[in-house]
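Appendix C reproduces, verbatim, an entry submitted by the partner laboratory led by Prof. M.T., so that reviewers can inspect both the input and the predicted structure.
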Amino acid sequence: MRTETPRTWLYRILAVVIWVTPAGAQPNEPYRNNLPAEHAAIAYASGTFDDRVSRLAEAVASGRIVLNHDEQFGYLPSLLEHLDIGVDTQALVFSKTSLQAPLISPRTPRAIYFSDAVAVGAVQGAPVIELVAFDPRRGAVFYTVDTARTKRPRFDRPARCLQCHQQAATLGVPGPYIGSVSTSATGRPDFRLGTVVTDHRTPFDERWGGWYVTGTHGAQSHRGNALARDPTTPAGLVDPFNQNLTSLTRFIDPGRFLVPTSDLVALMTFEHQTQMINLFTRIGWEARLADHDGILDASEAEARRLGVEEIARYMLFANEAPLIEPIQGVSSFTDTFPTRGPRDRQGRSLRDFDLRTRLFRYPLSFMIYSDLFDGLPNEIRRGVYGRLLHGLEGRADGEVILAIVRETKAGLPESWLPH
């Protein structure tokens, strides 16, 4: 049998991730070409970075912070603690869609943890832990940290991450994404069916091929927890036997992970967040490139208007795939995630879940509090505020959402303030 090298695996991964169907895409939606990361307006690989991981790396290098090394999980628990990421955000992906693909399998899935500002990916037995932080100007910035025990573990920014994380699935800018892909019994992606890039607009029955999913969702079905036992039959499509699972013990040894779950509600939250990050980055980069190059004609003005509209519609959960029945996770995520955000005087938060007919109770993205939103070019951010205000006025839940934001978000434009 021929042995496949890491480079061979990389070519396979690139083949599957480039062939994608963006969630919510319309038939006439244009292909998003890669924007030039090294353009002077972006300078992606150079300059000063201001994100959670860069600040942690500097503190570790100087000795101000010491990462503890756990006997079983290495630096992972300490990293999550210092980056303020909850272990209950854990999502497990077993498709071989990572630069560490040879180590990923249905028995040893990749564990992903996230917050608004950073995500961490860990594979058992891997030489590095993968991290992505979200810089206000540059968007997603990718890092690795060595897993070998040492006094001061080394952080790197490998350029090769962009081979998979800057392409159509990420809107042509560096970014994260969740892909739903058919897999073989070993976790190898099935190239015949391609990949669906998922977010809150994706129909429930197209989500999570190649992922483990724990939680209950009634008669709604998804593509998670499915493997192709027969090489001639694709997997990743809906398998009734793998729905409404509250335990993964028939797939994995839960004791080898920080928590025994791959929570449904956490997955849906991360899906929304990933494409929100990519939209902020894409529209922000386009404006910065045009400003630098002096492109301020009517065509650019229209492009900015459309970009503002796209961000605002996504933030307002336009075209959100409705829940036909209530859903419920099996980890503490549903309880802990709402506690991380600001609340108004009546105790309401944009992080409050609905989970009956839609994901959030108050459908305006919690990413309005993110550094990425605040880091949008001024003209774009002002335009988004205006479009959001227009979209909320007259809606049944609009006044409640406006009241929450007015009490919890600093720097609002005057038009948002009560008159």
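Residues 6-264 form one domain. Additional entries are available on request from the coordinating office.
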